[in-house]
Fold this protein.
Amino acid sequence: MRKMILIPQEQYYKMLETYDQIVEEVVSLREQLEVLKLTGVKSSEIQQVKVEILMKSKDQN
């Protein structure tokens, strides 16, 4: 038996918008990571950049 949950249309569209923003951000971060790898940045430096990005992201929320 399937159950359904109804949410307001406005909330649904907000969820879609948020999802799209997250996907765009992930794509951007992957591209930035590739650039770092191609420029010969050491993995420890890449890890530090990841931490800085995560901290910045948390501060914005």
Notes: The two ends are 38 Å apart (CA to CA).
